[in-house]
Write a structure and sequence with these properties.
By secondary structure, this protein is an alpha+beta fold. The protein is built from one helix and ten strands; from the N terminus they run E-E-E-E-E-E-E-E-E-E-H. The chain starts with a strand and ends with a helix.
Length: 133
């Protein structure tokens, strides 16, 4: 029996997909990674991008767009934990671009608010510790 890699895509609320493939291409934070059978166990961060399931001859069988996450690879199982996933036939490049752009703006806005709150906390501490004249 030919060995395959078992892909498991997990969302916060449910298991989205379980599927077997000869190879699985995942979007690693430092570049794409191909998962083959008998691969050494590893855990890696993922960026926004496509998970591609490849057949025996290298053709794409299925493809899913994920929004970052973590991949846990061990015992011929590639488990991807992600916040959101969209199958290829439900998306357009324009839609992906808008979603990723919106998400990055939201994260930047959150970072700016956190910086502002830290600065204001320091100002409040200075005012609180300043002796009365």
């Amino acid at each position: 029996m030919e060995k395959k890699v078992h892909l498991k895509i997990v969302l916060p609320s449910k298991i989205y997909k379980e599927e077997d493939a000869y190879r699985v291409l995942i979007p690693g934070e430092n570049g794409d990674l191909t998962v083959l059978e008998e691969r050494a166990p590893s855990v890696l961060n993922l960026r926004c991008g496509y998970i591609k399931l490849l057949g025996e001859t290298g053709q794409e069988d299925n493809k899913y767009f994920i929004v970052g996450g973590v991949a846990n690879i061990a015992d011929n199982v590639c488990e991807v934990l992600t916040e959101a996933v969209v199958p290829e036939d439900h998306i357009s490049q324009y839609g992906i671009f808008n979603y990723v752009n919106w998400r990055s703006q939201k994260e930047r806005k959150h970072a700016v608010i956190e910086r502002y709150q830290r600065k204001m906390k320091k100002v409040d501490e200075r005012i609180k510790n300043k002796p009365l004249e």
